[in-house]
Amino acid sequence: MAKKTYIQAVTDALDIVLEDDPKTLIFGEDVGKNGGVFRTTQGLQKKYGEDRVFDTPLAESGIMGLATGLGLTGWRPIPEIQFMGFSFEAVDQIAGQLARMRFRFDGLKNAPVTIRTPYGGGTHTAEMHADNLENFFTGVPGLRVVMPSNPYDAKGLLISSVESNDPVLFMENLKLYRSMKDDIPDGKYTVPLDKANVVREGNDITIVAYGAEVNEALKVADSLAEKNISVEVIDLRTVSPIDTETIFKSIEKTHKVVIVQEAQKMAGVGAQVASAIAEGAILSLDAPVGRVAAPNSVYPFALGEDIWIPRAKEIEEKVNEILNY
């Protein structure tokens, strides 16, 4: 057991799956000798060879076309899209081809592809480097979307994703890469897909969050605990499909809920959670569903990030509003 950053936990997971299964392959822009733009794959080409960890041309549609073909022919590819904004170039390969393969072949073929990509604000990157595009991809049938909020989950969820026989979009938060550490067990462990985690128990109100916003929600829970307000925090971990059972169970206890996401508010994960609550748990509520999200605008340039990304202050204001309803 050692304390490791989020990015070290991801590298750990990749090392384990490459060692476990000779059918796993890593490829993408600069992932080989250079170890990736964030050094996530550093040392893996030297350890496993250029046939299993290799660079590709700067063409995301080509990367995903290769991944789809390999996935259908018995391989277990782990392609990297260098920044999530670049995935616009590969939408047809992901949504129009890869995600529908199981349906297309009537369940007779799988496409076990795990697409890794960094996303999220807070590091002042250039345009197209920080976009939160889970709103796009959670609407794609056949594609699982995973968004870990901490190093422990990042390692366990990535191993589970690679071992899954379905295509997975694995989103790694840029700001979390080197800003937090966890105790990470040596060797292999898994965290189950499709299962939310109650990261803090409480009785007065539920906050549902995912990705980096889980950590903002925990700050709010700490702050309100000093005022004897007990906040339950749920980390969705997988945002498609969503574990509504855990959310409903929490609302039956707290009777109030606030949903938090870093992405734009329109038609996103938070909207889907709110809709599910309206359909399945509305009689348990004593107040309207609260929501905190980024504005419905294009992702801002670097200097605008600090006022665009939802932070603990905005979450706490919304929680107080719902508590006092």
TrEMBL record:
Domain Transketolase-like pyrimidine-binding: where? 4-179
GO MF annotations, alphabetized: oxidoreductase activity
What keywords were assigned to this record? Answer: Oxidoreductase, Thiamine pyrophosphate
Coiled-coil region(s): none
Q: Which domain of life is it from?
A: Bacteria
Claim: Oxidoreductase is one of the keywords in the record: yes
Cofactor(s) needed for function: thiamine diphosphate
The record's section on PANTHER family has: PYRUVATE DEHYDROGENASE E1 COMPONENT BETA SUBUNIT (PTHR43257), PYRUVATE DEHYDROGENASE E1 COMPONENT SUBUNIT BETA (PTHR43257:SF2)
**What is the official name of this protein in its record?**
Transketolase-like pyrimidine-binding domain-containing protein
